Amino acid sequence: MKFSIVITTYNRLTLLKRAVYSACRQTVPCDVIVVDDCSTDGTQEYMTALCSQNPHVLYHRNKINLGHSQSVNRGVELATGDWIKPLDDDDYLAAECVEMMQNAIQLRPQAVICSAQALQVDEQEKPLYLTCTMGQGLVCYIPQGDIHRGMLLEEVPFGTPAQVAFQRDAFLKSGGWDSSLDANFDDIDSWLKIAQFGDALFINRCLAYRTVWSGSYNQKLTLLTRLKTHILIKHKIYQFVDPQDQDQIPQLRHIENYLRLHWSLIALKQRQWRKAFSLAASAPLDLQAWQLLFRRFQREQTVNSFLPPAVFPQLVHNLREQTTATGSLIQNYTTLRWGLKAWQNHRPIQAFQLASLALCSPTAWPLFFTLFSPPMGCPPGILLHPNHITLLKIICFLQKKAPSSLTDVQEFHLCLKFRLVRLAFHQRRWFILWQYLWPLLGSRSAWRLLIKLWFRHNRRQRETEIRKIILMDALKTGL
What we know:
- There is one protein chain.
- This protein is an alpha/beta fold.
- The chain has three domains: 3-213, Spore Coat Polysaccharide Biosynthesis Protein SpsA, Chain A, CATH 3.90.550.10; 250-371, no CATH class; 386-479, no CATH class.
- The chain is built from 19 helices and ten strands.
- Strands 1, 2, 3, 4, 5, 6, 7, 8, 9 and 10 form a ten-stranded mixed beta sheet that branches.
- α1 links the parallel β1 and β2.
- α5 runs antiparallel to α8 (223-240) and α17 (407-426) runs antiparallel to α18.
- The longest helix is centred in the C-terminal third of the chain and has 35 residues, at 444-478.
- The protein is elongated and about 100 Å long.
- The protein starts with a strand and ends with a helix.
C-alpha cells in the first residue's frame, strides 16, 4: 500500500512551508505532490529548490488559475499512490498520520475512505476545538450502508481534507471534486460520492491540525451562500440513505431548520444581528431542530472537555456570544448547561458565575431536561463506564429491531433505563442521573414497572427466607 499526499496552494508560501514540512516528516515513506494554482509570492522558486533536494516531492504549477477543486483533481491524477491524503496549504499533519492510517486500512481492506480526529487551531497554533470521537477503541469500522445515514446526522465526523484519506480508484470513479462547489463543501460532496464504493474507517486519534483564520477560502463566502450549499449537501446525502433507515431519521425540514439555527448562531457570533434573524427564519419554532442542535453541542462538549483548561473559558465566552440575541429562554438554558459543565470540571466559582442568572429560571430547567435527555445511541463517554455503554447499545438495538408497541419490549426499555439511573447513582454522577431520571418521573408506565419490580423483589426475598428455613430444618433433621 502506497500513500501520496496532495497539497494544493495559492499565494500562501509561509503556510505552505509548514504543510510541506509536516508531509515530508511522516514516519513512513510517501510521495508529496504540491499543486500550485498560479501563485505569485515566490512559491515556484521555493518548490523548485525543494524538489531538487528531495526526490519524493513533486511540484506542478497550473497554466491558468483553476480553483481549489480542480487543483485537487489534478493532484490526484499526478499521484501514483493507492491512497491519497489531501491537505490544504494552511493545515498540517501529525508525524504518524499516514502510518496510523495504513495500519487501520490493513485491518479492513474493503475501506475506501479513512478519517481521523483533527484539532482546530488559531493562527498562533493554540487549540480551539477537537473533532468528536466515534465508537470505541482506536479504530472504528463503518459499514458502507451506515455511512450516509451517519453523515446526514453528523454522527460520522468526516470533515475537512486534513483529516481524511481516500482510495484513489474510488475517487476517480466518483468523478472527483465538483468545481461548482469550489471551497464550499466540495470535500463533503466528494466523501459522499466515494462512500458509494466501499466501507469507511475512523481513527480516534488526533492526526491533523486545521487552521481557523480569516484568510481561509470559505471565509470569503457569505453566510447565506454557505447555508444554501450546506442544505444542498444534506439533500444529496438524504438521497443516498437506505430507504429502510429514512423512517428512523428526522425529516428534511427539521434538518434544514437545524442548519438555519447553526448558521444563525455563527452570524450572532460575528455580530451580524440582522443576518442572524434572516438566516434563522422560522427555525426557532422547530423543537426537533433545537434537539439536533443541542445534541451536536453535547457531542462536542463530551470530547472538548479534555482540551487544556485555558481553552475552556474561551469556549464558554464564544457560546455566550452566540446566544446574546436568541431570547432569555435559550440564553438561560445555555448558561445553565455551561455552569453545570464547569461544576463537573471542579470549577465552582466559574459555575456559579455562569449559571447564577438561570438557577431560578422557571423555564430553563424544563427546557434543559427536555432537550438534553440523552438520545438512543448517544455517543460513548457521557458516563465513562463500560456497563453504561453496553446498556445504551442494547436499548439502541431494541429500538431498531423490536416493535416498540410490544408491552414486554416497553418494559424492558424502562428496566434498562432504571439500571442506568442506578449506575449513575453509584458513580455519584448526579448531573447524569437527573438526565435519565427526569423523563421517567413523568411516565405512568415507568411507575407501574417500578411497583411491579418492588413487589417482585419482596417476593423473591420472602422465597429466599423460606428456602433458608427449609434448609436449616433439613440440616437439623440430618444431625
